[in-house]
Write a structure and sequence with these properties.
Two copies of one chain form a homodimer. Chain A has about 350 residues and is mainly β. Chain A folds into two domains: about 5-240, Alpha-Beta Complex (Sulfite Oxidase, Chain A, domain 2); about 250-359, Immunoglobulin-like. Helices cover about 10% and strands about 40% of the residues of chain A. Chain A has five helices and 23 strands. A five-stranded mixed beta sheet of chain A has the order 4-3-12-7-8. In chain A, strands 5, 6, 9, 10 and 11 form a five-stranded antiparallel beta sheet that branches. Chain A has a five-stranded mixed beta sheet with strand order 16-23-22-18-19, with no helix packed on it. In chain A, strand 7 (about 135-145) and strand 8 form a beta hairpin. The first copy, chain A, is globular and about 70 Å long. The mean pLDDT of chain A is about 95. The interface of A and B includes residues 17, 97, 287, 291 and 318 of A.
Chain lengths: ~350, ~350
């Protein structure tokens, strides 16, 4: 089988929304288990799958520049974490006015088990120099990109996917940022960043740089297209801000939107997650009337993964019913009815509204 | 066949959203033709189908009170008009925050051919007294109703469906308000207001009182639950206002939302209508980028009915595409991206956004 055939096979079960660069949503069933099988995990890329020579350079303002291979990373202490990743643009299609950007529905979210070395240990070995501020993560992926959608004059053919984190975040052992080389117990697939990638728990997945090629400690704050151009909350009424933590959100996974069900008890189920602390409650509304009822919320099975919730609904009245679920996290964040609109459509965590026709 | 069986048969093809009172959307195919077959025409009722003795009283501040039967109405000059009716709550499910009220999707709109006598001629025969201000239209339907949803203490068991129009509007020959006794060439069906109903062209259908029982000329402005309680735009930031003219709106009838289509030329089709003048243009957007392209708009086939529009889309790029259609009417009204939110969710004419996956 050719590499192209293999990649095609790996993509077959996804809902493709863009062939080049390849972007695809998970199918709805990907949200039902604790972990999303790799072939059902959503894929977000800003450029085509790049060539990668298998090495990772760590440099910039460090006392001990390093060049690591996957074997070097495997020789370090191994950490294994289930991490929910969500695209910052997930839910963009539900935002009004419709923003520019990839037309993500609601399935650019998945949870996989990632295995790798800890970023802070790699950085400790490289010994950041005094005066470090940010850490710059460069992917091997690069190509043409429109700084502003549509406008031809904003096209640049020489962009590389680069994101940065603060040095304080990058070296924080409790952040458990991984340089991951396995996903669900297998070497990374090309679409997911082979041979290795960053995994930044709790952050929108744009921070989890795929096809990781270079890490540089910087003594100045980092500026770049994917940090301060795109992936910015451009609100109309307050200073712009780069996309960071995943916003608290609940999804209803059963029953399906616009489905027909028989009258009787219906267990409404779903997932909930947040980048700002575990989800502490999920409430359900079964009418359009603003009455919220507490759902059963399962405790987190790990620090970085979605939680299950459920609610036994006595669906005795035939007719159309509206279902909503609203999550609250430990930091007190709660989902809004309407998220603050931002020009590029990031971070839509508005309360999901679906309906079911009971017969 | 019993009456109940007959009514059940008449309702079979509709998407029921409430069994009692019976409320049901049209199926999507109801929007494809010039006229909606009666069995596919949406149904909106505030109370159960009432008994009706077959007479219509015209009284109040008139010099010549009348009692008319359907035969009396048939003896008057006959007018026949295709009229697009839309429920004021159509599209409520797409409004955020989710308002209270019947959970209408987007199919509480239909067009039928209505036959009847002209209201202004009936009123002329009754000779309104000087000092008339409003005309009150009472349906035979009545029962229990919640003045404010959910709150038990607001329930009233003694409400009747009553709406009013200004006398000036009611007696205006150019308004062509009908007392209709036929729909699509047949006597009215029970769900559509048998034996006769008002048809108020250009207005949201709440004005088109079904099961019409009494008409009274009033010398004071009318106040009532369905005029100044419900069916009010309760905006947060300006004076409330009763629901009146249908807002300009375009719908995309093909391709279907979230459908898969083959790459190639795809004719995007739809309907457009407005209560404030014929639709004068429809524009289509095929990207999320704010570029709008003019669609072919067919001229109106009559003064009160939806218009056809279409656009030949070269759907050559595989992947997900967003489709939008935006109508403008002769008064210069244009559909908004987001309608001004109102508590009861009326008049949602926001630009429709759908997506199609091209393979």
């Amino acid at each position: 089988m050719t590499v192209a055939d293999r990649i095609g096979q790996e993509r077959a079960a996804l809902q493709m929304i863009n062939p080049a660069p390849f972007n695809a949503e998970a199918p709805p069933e990907a949200l039902t288990g604790d972990l999303t099988p790799t072939e059902l995990h959503y894929v977000r890329s800003n450029f085509a799958i790049p060539a990668h020579d298998g090495t990772l350079e760590i440099g910039g303002a460090v006392e001990n520049p390093l060049t690591l291979t996957v074997d070097d990373l495997r020789a370090m202490p191994t950490v294994d974490r289930a991490v929910t990743l969500e695209c910052a643009g997930n839910g963009r299609l539900d935002t009004r006015p419709l923003p520019t950007g990839e037309p993500w529905g609601s399935y650019a979210v998945s949870t996989a088990r990632w295995t790798g070395a800890l970023l802070h240990e790699v950085l400790r070995r490289a010994r950041p120099a005094t005066g470090g501020v940010d850490v710059r993560f460069e992917g091997a992926d690069h190509g043409a990109y429109h700084l502003r959608p549509v406008l031809e004059e904003t096209r640049r053919d020489d962009l590389t996917f680069v994101r940065a984190l603060s040095l304080a975040h990058a070296v924080d052992p409790s952040a458990e940022i991984l340089i991951a080389y396995e996903m669900n117990g297998e070497p990374l697939w090309p679409d997911h960043g082979a041979p290795f990638r960053l995994i930044v728990p709790h952050w929108y997945a744009v921070a989890s740089v795929k096809w990781l090629k270079r890490i540089d400690v910087l003594t100045e704050p980092y500026t770049g297209e994917f940090q301060t151009g795109h992936y910015m909350y451009e609100w109309p009424d307050r200073p712009h801000k780069t996309v960071d933590y995943m916003r608290v959100r609940a999804r209803i996974t059963a029953p399906a939107h616009a489905s027909d069900i028989n009258a009787g008890t219906c267990t409404v189920r779903g997932k909930a997650w947040s980048g700002t602390g575990p989800v502490t409650r999920v409430d359900v509304s079964l009418t359009g009337e603003g009455e919220w009822l507490p759902a059963r919320l399962e405790p987190p099975k790990g620090p970085y993964q979605w939680q299950d919730w459920s609610f036994d609904w006595k669906a005795t009245d035939v007719g159309r019913h509206t279902l909503r679920a609203r999550a609250t996290d430990a930091a007190g964040n709660v989902q809004p009815d309407v998220p603050p609109w931002n020009r590029l459509g990031y971070g839509n965590n508005a309360i999901e509204v679906l309906y079911v026709d009971v017969h």
